Amino acid sequence: MRRAVVTRPAGEASGWAAALGERGWAVAELPLIEIAAPAESESLQRARACCRDYHALMFVSAAAVAHFFAGRHWGDFGSGARCWAPGPATARALQAAGVPPERIDAPASDAENFDSESLWQQVGAQVGPGHRLLVVRGQTEGSGEGASMRGNGRDWLASQCEQRGGQVDWCVAYRRRPPCWSAGQLELARAAAADGSVWLLSSSEAVANLRTLLPEVDWTHARALVTHPRIAEAAGWLGFGATIISRASLTEVLRNLESMP
Q: What is the C-alpha separation between 220 and 130, in angstroms, rounded?
């Protein structure tokens, strides 16, 4: 039987696991990132109160949407801002929170990657002198509120805004931390490194956590499906013997899984 390991955070993984199961895959859920509330909530509360002061809010993930809204509805904020989403899952989360679809900007449906670079192609024309952007993001536990708020594509997109005279503010809506796996989960992961399972990896941070959890494992016989070239680089550095890159939508992931030898 074909086997897959879904490593998305608990709560996000269930939909993926169910879809794979319907296609005949045996699925193990081994979250590589745990999502928690921010250690300091006052800045998040201030950001919610000041939504109407921004021309656009960029949510880096569906988790950012969930923790920023936290049961609230977009209409509660009274904001006319546009909402930027780097991928379809984030756009769907925004719609579920009540943001009208016509106020959501996201990469084109046929974009090669769902990331900040593809998003910028859609939103760059909005930015000019005086434009104010709030980036709603997570923070790796232990980095501290005073640590750099930027990273990867978000840093690049913020720089593009600033080069055009815009102002960028940052808001931490949730924490990311490594999971605490049980002995059973560790045993399952070791087996999945050698039994032909395909690991679904959706962030470079998840790959780093995998190395920390299983530093002794040889990954040369393991296979990975990743959703961005940067994650492919991380998987290659860890030692995965075979890696393929897929667009991040569930449909594309399933299609690429079916094509793997």
A: 51
